[in-house]
Amino acid sequence: MNYKILYAFCLILLIPQILVSKGIAIIPSPQFFQEKEGVFVLNQGTSIMVQKDLTAKANQLKNYLEPALGFDLSVTSKSLSGNYIELKKDKNLAQLGNEGYKLEINPNKISLSAFSEKGIFWGIQTLRQLLPDAVLREAPVEGVKWEIPCIVIEDSPRYNWRGLMLDCSRTFIPKEEIKKYIEAISFFKMNVLHMHLTDDQGWRIEIKKYPELTKIASRFHESFDEPEEYAGYYSQDDIKELVAFAAARNVEIVPEIEMPGHTYEVFAAYPQLSCKGDTSKIKSWFPGLGLHKEIFCAGNNETFEFIENVLDEITMLFPSQYVHIGGDEAPKDYWKTCEKCQNRIKNENLANEDELQSWFVKRIEKYLNSKGKKLIGWDEIMDGGLSPGATVMYWRSWDKTVAREIPEIKNDIIFTPTSHCYFDYTYEKISSERMYSFNPVFNEQNQTPGNILGVQANFWSHLDRTSPQIDRQLFPRLLALAEVGWTEKDKKDWDDFKIRLQSKLKSLEIIGIHYFKENY
Ligand code: ACM
Ligand code: ZN
């Protein structure tokens, strides 16, 4: 074989793929698409045709587009001909699931159909990504031709859980910033915002029954000289606003209330709930081993009364079926010497402190179940016996012993390993390319997702605390995670992604995100 001929042949095979990718920079990449001749042009004559049940989505599309276009798009339920966009629910698309959609763009008509409203919304995001970047601007842009390339797309996600965790405890992230991140992640079809609301450095959510939590525990001790903007909490009205804002964008907010450890701040307000009973002061985070030994007293019934009262308010505020209860890095030193905790171990026939934590978590799980909710915990909830109904958020990297336990369990799992998904780490450690290479399965042979719900990036806010710093830690590698969670493995390709990513950096800039500049 002549190698030059072989090389030329390979190039011919490759070129159309790259051209397609250049033409339609969609992230995450759709499962199926076919480019066609021609373009649809959005102009002053374009209308949105919709049945009543999708009016809210039509208005959302209109509100997304109008500021940059500078002209109105009318919404109507009347039949149209000519230049229009049709949004339609279609039972025949049930096989694409709740989040799937079909988008067909012809020169005269755009047809977006889906089994559910969620699918329609993701289709709207694809449509926005197909338009020139300038469509993301919030004021009229002159001189742009609002063309959309003709294409047929059929799309649905690989995984149901495509999440981002924001640590709102170490740094209080203001409500408007949270909205910015919700808007940004939904643009890339991510659907979970996990809010880490409580930790040693701050309790960030109003609980009406325990006002001291926010009065005292939402502020660092003044000796740490924290800037005012890092103090604060979300009122219950703020939470309702965020939940509604997120729901309109297909994003579910999952609250996390830490227990039994990472609760130093609680004891600043309610010291009687700890084993030692001492009043603590909120401490600043410091690099190195920063874990506090303080822990909820598992032998004290008042602890459970407190947690259940807190969870009553949490479950009322968050419609999510999940409540995350933390469970990570709980130091057991004080349980070993606390008389009440030791009595609990004896009375409940438990072997040791690990089993006490397992008993603790199961007791809380039962309470959450009675409220119609499911429990999620960090993978330490496996220690001492895992409840079959709990969902495990797996964070410790799988080259450690704990990794080998994973294939044994039948529980639902969300992958957030430190090896790929820790976005407080530097880009030197976790580049976009490394993130992109992650395949969230137990091993490469096991291609069936089974009980894997999906994948999530975790951002801990102890080091990078200002808004531009947080932006840089998250973006652009969050786009890689979005594609890992959405696009089937055999449809992914780093070189192709890189080209699309370049194009989406402009979008990030327009929506005001200070992304990190990587060398590819
Ligand atoms: C964790 O990083 N402690 C979940
Ligand atoms: Zn105790």
Describe the protein's architecture and organization.
This protein starts with a helix and ends in a 10-residue tail after the last helix. Strand 2, helix 2 and strand 3 form a beta-alpha-beta unit. The strands form three sheets. An eight-stranded parallel beta barrel has the order 8-9-12-13-14-15-16-17, surrounded by five helices. The chain has a seven-stranded mixed beta sheet with strand order 1-7-5-6-4-2-3, with helices on one face. It has 520 residues and is an alpha/beta fold. It has two domains: 124 residues, Chitobiase/beta-hexosaminidase domain 2-like (Chitobiase, domain 2, 2-Layer Sandwich); 285 residues, Glycosidases (TIM Barrel), CATH 3.20.20. The N terminus is likely disordered. The protein is elongated, with a radius of gyration of 25 Å. Helix 1 packs parallel to helix 15 and helix 4 packs parallel to helix 6. The chain is built from 15 helices and 17 strands. Zinc ion (ZN) binds next to helix 10.
Output mean pLDDT: 91
- Please report the total strand number as a whole number: 17
Give unreliable regions as ranges.
Answer: 1-22
| Rg on CA atoms, Å | 25 Å
CATH superfamily of the largest domain: Glycosidases
CATH C-level class of the largest domain = Alpha Beta
Q: What portion of residues belong to β-strands? A: 15-25%
How helical, in percent, are the residues? 25-40%
- The appropriate CATH architecture of the largest domain is Alpha-Beta Barrel
User: Which ions, cofactors or small ligands are bound in this entry?
Assistant: acetamide, zinc ion
Q: Span from first to last CA?
A: 34 Å
Q: Structural class of the secondary structure composition?
A: alpha/beta
Largest sheet: 8 strands, parallel, barrel
Strand order of the largest sheet: 8-9-12-13-14-15-16-17
Please report the number of helical segments.
Answer: 15
Shape: elongated
Question: What is the CATH fold-level name of the largest domain?
Answer: TIM Barrel
User: What count of domains describes the coordinates?
Assistant: 2
